[in-house]
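Side project, low priority. Logging it here so it doesn't get lost.
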Amino acid sequence: MMRSARVAAAAVIVSGMTVLSAGCSSKPTVKPDGAAQSVVDVVSKQTGFHPNDVHCPDGVEAKVGQQFDCHFTGPEGKAYVANMKITKITGDNVEFDVNTHPSG
């Protein structure tokens, strides 16, 4: 179990995909549920730990370079943050780097 916690605490930088939402705004935004699923996929694949309470913000403008944070509970009940940075947008798909670490 300790090994899993150490792995999850390490920086994990990979690309994830999520879809855009146009909503009422003229500018497209990242869907929070899509971003959260990407965090789950990245953390699960890289560490074997499956977070089940990832929360990402609403209203994040979908533009390259935009950054935002998602939060989740990691191994042993510790709070973690996933720093998200949009690196590419293709159609309705957003690609970003994900860097997870304990919050605080």
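Brief comment: The first strand starts at residue 15 and ends at 21.
Revisit when time allows.
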